[in-house]
Fold these 3 entries.
Entry 1:
Amino acid sequence: MSDRVWWKEAIVYQIYPRSFKDSNGDGVGDLQGIISKLDYIKSLGVDAVWLNPIYKSPNDDGGYDISDYYSIQPEFGSMQDFDELLAGLHQRGLKLIMDLVLNHSSDEHPWFVESKKSKSNPFRDYYFWKPGKNGHAPNNWPSFFGGNAWQLDEQTGEYYLHLFSVKQPDLNWENTALRKEVHELMRYWLKRGVDGLRLDVISAISKRTDFPPTDTVDFNETIRRYYSNGPRLQEFIEEVRTKVINEYKDVMTVGEGPGITPQNALDYLDPEKGLNMIFHFGHMFMDQGPGGRFDPIPWSMTDFTKVFKTWDDTFAKTGWGSIFLGNHDFARMVSRWGDDSSYWRESSTLLITLLLSMRGTPFIFQGDEIGMTNTKLKAVADSKDIETQNGWREAQKRGMSEDQFLSLANYSGRDNARTPMQWDDSVFGGFTDGHPWMDLNPNKSRINVATQTTDPHSILNYFRSMTSLRKAHPVLTYGTYEPIETKDDRVFAYYRQEGKEKYQIVLHFSNENSTFPIPLNAQRLIGNYANESLSLRPWEATIHKL
Ligand code: ISL
Ligand code: CA
């Protein structure tokens, strides 16, 4: 167990501030709200908090469109509130990871406002501008949020690149002055005492500046081949690491890596020159067809378990993995991988067992510790997400009905993850005293923190037991990962081992019964059913020390 560092041992709790806790009755979660819940966060047994973006933003894409990297979104509070939050976390021994969005800015950022003014503006080159081709966009790149990724600007008659929404123009990292600005803003937050950075779509910061047209209709393939892993990626990351990150002690970096593959992931993770970790989407994109998020395809348990093996093998060489089963961009983990009706408790706790017994730093999304589930939009107009709104616009062009589209959005849309946190069974779930910016999931009266706090068998209390178990047995953090072959593909089983210390984890992804041998003399450390049994019950999860 050499090479011990805090971020390998940390369990990270992800907070979507808009939906966590409102302190002043305007219906929007805020920093004072988070401050009021710090003891709750600490009680979970986690070590760090990752905050989704809290910077000034027109909020076209949930704050991922930043108009000022140096100030706090007024709805969320002030810089003073931020310092208070940071101090409050540190007092409790918790670290803070900030989310920096550096692949693009808001179109309302002063850089873009300038850049738009004329072809000769000094900020022109901070973004990607191109003339059209025969009256059309410069190439056929599709945007993540539907439509073409180039937008015509009437004033100068050129197009700018926006891989995400039209209000998120891509920043041009080829420009040295822009890169200096980026380094400066990172220093600003690190100087304030932030412990780590999550770098949004870091895989896309280096563009193929000849902008070759994509020749595939498969969106995720386009991400892999055209948007990610560009020619200067390693150089840009190395510059960030050596000129900025290394100036501060013990700072952790985790990149978000849509489009990375096991073959190129390690390019990001050089111990001296790279990031510490990168989120891959092996399992998250598994059920997406060529059309991406709103084009679901079936997935199998074999595909699912293979992802963990492939990626553990990758990071076993160098680097370090990160484990997550949901976040603010995807469906709720229990609705997606578990059974959120008949076996809601069992499958939630099974997924928690998986998350906290894998090699790699676990990231848990707010609400998953109480088994929050997907919500149901009744009309597309109820969606608060630009991806869903735009997806519907595109779907209509293909002749889809609203009901058809809603079934897709309710399966995989981002609104599912973004409903307000369910603190208690009151009208607005204890999230706000005012009117919430987004409807709560109606199941808040059944699924909430208050009820689960007092129930010893709750998902919440199981989560706490799992975090302390992981801490008590460092082999669950550092030990090797070895999948066990099983006859029943609904049984996901593996060993974690270091030297003579060995653990067996068995996770039964099914509503039926099954069996799996437990070696004699094995000691059961935890399980999501009260007693041991010779058979495997629906969604049973166990950890044994061998
Ligand atoms: O969710 C996805 C698939 O549709 C991902 O591809 C996701 O859009 C992608 O990983 C980028 O996500 C990040 O950057 C976006 C922002 O909307 C997401 O919330 C953020 O996590 C643009 O900044
Ligand atoms: Ca508020």
Note: Residues 22-24, 26, 28, 30 surround calcium ion (ligand 2) (CB under 6 Å).
Entry 2:
Amino acid sequence: MKKNKTHIHWYPGHIAKAERKLKEQLNLVDAVIEVVDARLPISSSYENITRLLGQKPRLILLNKSDLTDKEELKNWIKILSEKNEVPVLVSDAKNSKDLNFIIKKAEELAEPKIQEIMKKGLLRRPARIMVVGMPNVGKSSIINKLTKSSKTKVGAKAGVTRQQQWVRINPKLELLDTPGIIPMTQDDQQAAQKLAFVNSVSENAYSNELVATELVELLKEKYPEQLKAYYDLNDSCSLESIALSRNWIISGGQPDIERTSAYVLRDFREGKIGKFILD
Ligand code: G4P
């Protein structure tokens, strides 16, 4: 696969297939938890989600909040709840023990659907919910935390194409134990770059050096002080100056750009350079 500066590539066929699978899963649930990487409140959300969901209620969960600037995140919560008119919650699935607040909100969201069922004279049943989101935003970590205290498998129910496994969280709520993976489109290359920064794009789709170069450019623009402080830089902020500052040199005294690129991406992803929001 050709790697160049301007494009992050993946196959349209994969997108269509992923969207079909996601639709099948969505048909089975009463409400949806959309997990978004809090460092990319827009770029890691799915612009087609309302088309896919129709009237189905959703909440947005800004996960990996531990890697963000908390004050900036407050603004984003306001912006996203006003724009989408859905509840917006914040989580840190890596460190927090209690994600019960998500369960409470999901129950509330699904309740109107359950009431509708009961009005038709049917018995109350647990609401069914699922977690959706782009790769690597923390869907599995969240599902694991939500189901940890309640490993009651309620058995398989027929899905459209395969059996789906549900876990009973409490008498009112069942969670699909497989997350829905939101496909990425390649229309917005700027968003694709940002998704590569946070490791939501397969590494085969891009070159480390090119993505690290873009990341340094963006940090230089948005958070120059943290970038300079972490890598002991003076005025020049580039992969070359980082390599020289860290003494990552190859034979002939040239900066080791390959190594530097890998380190910069890793440092950013681990939150070592600073806590950022890049949208
Ligand atoms: P996915 O299902 O959406 O693909 O994501 P998954 O839960 O597998 O999480 C992807 C990576 O993100 C994992 O790291 C996970 O630990 C980490 N992660 C999930 N939630 C949070 C969070 O709130 N904060 C932080 N800082 N990290 C989070 P990994 O490196 O793949 O594995 P490991 O760290 O568990 O070893």
Note: The domain at 12-176 is CATH 3.40.50.300 (Rossmann fold).
Entry 3:
Amino acid sequence: MKGRDIISIRDLKKEEIELVFSVADSMVDIALGKKESNALEHKILATLFFEPSTRTKMSFESAMLRLGGRCIGFSDIGATSVAKGENLHDTVRVVESYSDAMVIRHPKEGAARYAAEISEKPVINAGDGSGEHPTQTLLDLYTMKKAMGGIAGKNVLLVGDLKYGRTVHSLARALSLFGAGIFLISPRELEMPEEVKKEINIEAEGERIEDHIREADVIYVTRIQKERFPDPAEYAKLSGRYRIDSKLLEMAKKECIVMHPLPRVEEIAYDVDSTEHAWYFREAFNGIPVRMALLSLIMGVVE
Ligand code: NCD
């Protein structure tokens, strides 16, 4: 996988995703700080964040630092030459000469693909508008494998904003590849886009969690993506539509896990945190070993 761009989850074959997972397994102790590594010594990762981020940016940085590498980057375009009118093309041309790989998050769909066309160095898409978020999918699948032992034949409810949520666009494609049963639960206004639907196998589609919660092995909850709505009134109408709480989870299987890419706003009540169902914080941690593995593979220090 040396030198590869990771723009869409479709860029990865099943065997490559499994390779990332087996490398990630070998890196958990390093991710936990129990073991030291200098595998990425002298390597530099650039992070270009044109949109807010907590986990994605910091977990890429932590992954890099835990492997002895270094990071440069920005997360406030107001402090960069973008504020002076520099375009994405020129920013990418310059940053590639400063680093060994770059991670980019941008509000426009297609921006990461465009950056990859410009850059000779590997580009990783950390979210392009409502497009995709492939590394989130890698850690999501890894988390499901850890929790359930496998993904094939498991029933996954994707809940919330399936229209604008980029994590579910990547995840649905990967779940299909791994043979999971996909249940799409969203308000009608926020349905999964047709272009994604035609690429995946759908068990059922509807608006109510209650209709399928008993069959669920995973409930993957997403935030209504406020920043993508053209009309704030439309957001106001749909926000708060779904709320998973411990009462609702009494209907679910004992071993059903609840996941969320985070940040949560109001979709998961705090009373879920202390239940056996809550997997979202473990999911967030898994971003470290998974991103360590991916960086090691694309930077060519692991094969
Ligand atoms: C997600 C994103 O940015 O798409 N966050 C993340 O990377 N974990 C989800 C979201 O913002 O709702």
Note: The first helix runs from residue 14 to 26.
